[in-house]
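Practice record 12: protein with zinc ion.
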Amino acid sequence: MIKIAPSMLSADFARLGEQIEEISRAGSDYVHVDVMDGHFVPNISFGASVMKSLNKLESAPYDVHLMIENPDQYLEDFVTDKTEFICVHQEACTHLSRTIQHIKSCGVKAGVALNPATPVVILEEVLSDVDMILIMSVNPGFGGQSLIPSTLNKIRRLDSLRKQEGFKYEIEIDGGVNLNTIADVSASGVDIMVAGSAVFKADDLGAHVKELRAAAEAVRK
Ligand code: DX5
Ligand code: ZN
């Protein structure tokens, strides 16, 4: 079952609540929450207070992507009734195993993200602990970049590894997913597809979510 997670980074922040409700009504599986600190990535987005102010809306659950240094210091801030995943970057964690346990102790699912230049093998010792692995298909920091095709090989590798070894993690892709790339993305075996600019720059956000899902599912049949 393919899951679609529009990234609110590309939303019109003056109409954030309205747009989050619109994409949720259209059947989005998650609201992807891109948190950037201006240190781990060369951009600053928003923090937990913005995310929490959406709590009162009828929205899909949150898939929180922390592109920040020292994520352990801030994890609790992102835990709400709507938080399903908190995902940290491997590159930002000195004690990754401890951070994964910390996320789980907050009662949410633990994800680990890999930048395009970071190999899958670096996660070998935590594959049985993580609930989700996020493969960055662009260098993180900005929406609207082009997907780096070689990152799909990492998804294929993770998909065959879990089939061989019985690991339970889900695989997410983030960056450059749009109607032009989604067929290749879907064929790679990924479970959750983040789409930022493709959804929020469309004239009809809800219709675009449905179009992306249909295009992704067409490849799986
Ligand atoms: C990039 C973010 C992505 C980004 C995706 O650092 O993690 O979630 O918003 O945007 P698009 O879909 O426009 O590439
Ligand atoms: Zn993201």
